[in-house]
């Protein structure tokens, strides 16, 4: 997956692509992989880095959505449970089966949740991850030593999936390229091309590394820009009603001692009527999330004071070792691209299922959904796109298609397990140059060879690409990631043949941005 090859393909002005996808998050990558795997010539263009937007800021769950079951959205839960099973089958190096425990503090809660979770188990069918089980108070305390004991009645275990969101995005981009597609990061769509009848016939984009503007022709264009959907729609038809409502959710990341368990905690009903998760992830604990409407879509949204207080206060009600602001290793916010709410509808009530919209000009937009269902969203939007563009009909092939990095037996003791089938190649780098085996920071497991790998094989272009989305340092421990920056910039500059001034600038801008992940 080389950016230079992508730019070369893009600059071929004689070419008409079958499908161009705008946006390199879960939705865009899902659509592009589906299209390329069916044999259509496919180009995906991303303004920043793959998964720089919402798709690196999730709760890291591949789930049916117990909450949606409680809301009675059976169809959404059924489709998500099926996709959960398929993803575990196609990317076992990134998705794992995780136990969730609901601690219960009222006499009726255990039977109540057990019945609901048995339905959840039944709906998973053959793709189920394990049966839900009732726990006594003692068993709950043994599984979750840091849970509040006062009035604890017992607990219920259920199973769902957990994953690494931006690593899955990178693997999808690699899968796209391996299927003959082209993926380019740092390439911004600045306009849409139209034919004489006003139908979309391609895109105009800027390579943000060189400022060169390209025009790429295609039979159909898919807008998969998440919370930025309306910006692209405005290029097509200025002044249209909003189709997307951004809803912010934040997470805090804590040291493992705040959970002291390999199992996750699920609090089914917080004071604002949502669910709260505390989930072990890459040796730390992620706690979240919130859900509230925001006015503007931003690429680096920031947590609001109220959200921070809500998460800390709710966590304190359930954990014996209560987290304070200074315990927060990283704080990150993401924006859900929800289909715009109708008047009077709260965001937690807006359906999380996806929508495919077709504009008069033939521009197709895919909105809503969630990471768990990215494959199905891809299938749906490509079915629609091929029909609209009159492309030869071909069946979707992604259901049983292993993704880049697929391996059968995953050894999760080594932090490099996320690379799956690429592990031997990274180890080979270290064999050739033992200095690449050196750890970069005492508090995080990453070694220098991973930086080299990210630049050579995973299209990392900036310090933020490496530290936030190839490695997950920014999300796991923001201060440590800033301390890693000079060494990582030095390795990257060598690989990309950049001057000292590039490293200096990268460190400066990365540090400034990452300050926003530190809670003071
Ligand atoms: C707090 C939170 C927690 C969540 N947790 C979960 C979870 O646990 N499990 C789950 O299944 N789902 C979860 N989700 C939902 C899931 O993360 C999103 O549905 C999904 O990531 C959305 O992906 P997307 O591709 O639509 O948007 P994005 O990831 O935002 O991608 C859109 C891309 O378009 C690019 N773009 C914008 N404008 C342009 C342009 N002009 N030119 C080129 N590119 C452009 C952006 O840079 C961006 O990368 C969560 C969401 C949030 C906010």
How would you characterize the overall build of this protein?
- By secondary structure, this protein is an alpha+beta fold.
- It starts with a helix and ends in a 6-residue tail after the last helix.
- The mean pLDDT is 94.
- The longest helix is centred in the last third of the chain and has 19 residues, at 478-496.
- It has 3 domains: 3-54 and 166-243 and 350-389, FAD/NAD(P)-binding domain (3-Layer(bba) Sandwich); 95-162 and 245-340, D-Amino Acid Oxidase, subunit A, domain 2 (D-Amino Acid Oxidase, Chain A, domain 2); 415-517, Helicase, Ruva Protein, domain 3.
- The strands form 3 sheets. Strands 3, 4, 5, 6, 11, 12, 13, 14, 15 and 16 form a 10-stranded mixed beta sheet that branches. Strands 1, 2, 7, 8, 9, 10, 17 and 18 form an 8-stranded mixed beta sheet that branches. A two-stranded antiparallel ribbon has the order 19-20.
- It has helices at 3-10, 26-37, 66-70, 74-90, 109-124, 137-143, 165-178, 229-236, 305-318, 374-389, 423-432, 448-457, 463-470, 473-476, 478-496, 500-514; strands at residues 16-22, 42-45, 61-62, 95-104, 133-135, 154-163, 182-184, 187-194, 200-207, 212-223, 244-255, 264-267, 276-281, 284-288, 292-293, 330-339, 355-358, 364-367, 439-441, 444-447.
- The chain has 16 helices and 20 strands.
- The protein is globular.
- The structure holds flavin-adenine dinucleotide.
- The site of flavin-adenine dinucleotide (FAD) has 37 residues, from helix 2, strand 8 and strand 16.
């Amino acid at each position: 997956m080389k950016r230079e090859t992508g730019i070369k393909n893009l600059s071929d002005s004689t070419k008409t692509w079958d499908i161009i996808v705008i946006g390199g998050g879960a939705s865009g990558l899902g659509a592009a992989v589906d299209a390329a795997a069916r044999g259509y010539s496919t180009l995906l263009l991303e303004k920043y880095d793959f998964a720089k937007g919402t798709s690196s800021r999730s709760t890291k769950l591949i789930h049916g959505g117990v909450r949606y079951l409680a809301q009675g959205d059976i169809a959404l839960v059924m489709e998500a449970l099926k996709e959960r099973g398929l993803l575990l089958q196609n990317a076992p190096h990134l998705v794992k089966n995780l136990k969730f425990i609901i601690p219960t503090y009222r006499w009726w809660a255990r039977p109540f949740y057990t019945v609901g979770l048995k339905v959840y188990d039944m709906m998973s069918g053959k793709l189920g991850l394990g049966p839900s089980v009732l726990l006594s108070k003692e068993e709950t305390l043994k599984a979750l030593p840091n849970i509040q004991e006062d009035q604890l009645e017992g607990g219920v275990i259920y199973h769902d999936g957990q994953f690494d969101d931006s690593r899955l995005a990178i693997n999808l981009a690699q899968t796209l390229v391996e299927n003959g597609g082209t993926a380019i990061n740092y390439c911004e769509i600045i306009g849409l091309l139209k034919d004489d009848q006003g139908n979309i016939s391609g895109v105009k984009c800027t390579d943000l590394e060189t400022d060169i503007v390209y025009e790429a022709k295609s039979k159909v264009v898919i807008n998969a820009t998440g919370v930025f959907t309306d910006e692209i729609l405005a290029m097509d038809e200025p002044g249209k009603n909003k189709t997307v409502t951004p809803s912010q959710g934040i997470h805090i990341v804590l040291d493992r001692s705040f959970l002291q368990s390999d199992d996750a905690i699920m609090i089914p009903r917080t004071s604002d009527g949502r669910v709260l998760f505390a989930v072990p992830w890459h040796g730390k604990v992620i706690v979240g999330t919130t859900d509230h409407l925001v006015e503007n879509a931003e690429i680096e949204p920031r947590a609001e004071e109220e959200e921070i207080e809500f998460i800390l206060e709710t966590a304190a009600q359930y954990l014996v070792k209560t987290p304070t602001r200074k315990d927060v290793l990283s704080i990150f916010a993401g924006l859900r691209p929800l289909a715009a709410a109708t008047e009077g509808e709260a965001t937690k009530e807006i359906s999380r299922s996806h929508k495919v919209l077709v504009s008069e000009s033939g521009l197709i937009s895919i909105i809503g959904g969630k990471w768990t269902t990215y494959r199905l969203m891809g299938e749906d939007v490509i079915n629609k796109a091929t029909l609209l563009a009159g492309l030869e009909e071909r069946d979707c092939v992604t259901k049983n298609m292993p993704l880049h990095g697929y391996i059968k037996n995953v050894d999760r003791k080594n932090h490099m397990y996320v690379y799956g089938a690429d592990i031997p190649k990274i180890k080979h780098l270290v064999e050739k140059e033992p200095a690449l085996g050196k750890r970069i920071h005492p508090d995080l497991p990453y070694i220098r060879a991973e930086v080299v790998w990210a630049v050579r094989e995973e299209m990392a272009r900036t310090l933020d690409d490496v530290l936030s989305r190839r490695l997950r340092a920014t999300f796991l421990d923001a201060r440590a990631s800033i301390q890693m920056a000079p060494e990582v910039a030095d390795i990257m500059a060598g690989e990309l043949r950049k001057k000292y001034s590039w490293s200096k600038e990268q460190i400066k801008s990365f540090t400034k941005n990452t300050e926003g992940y530190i809670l003071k």
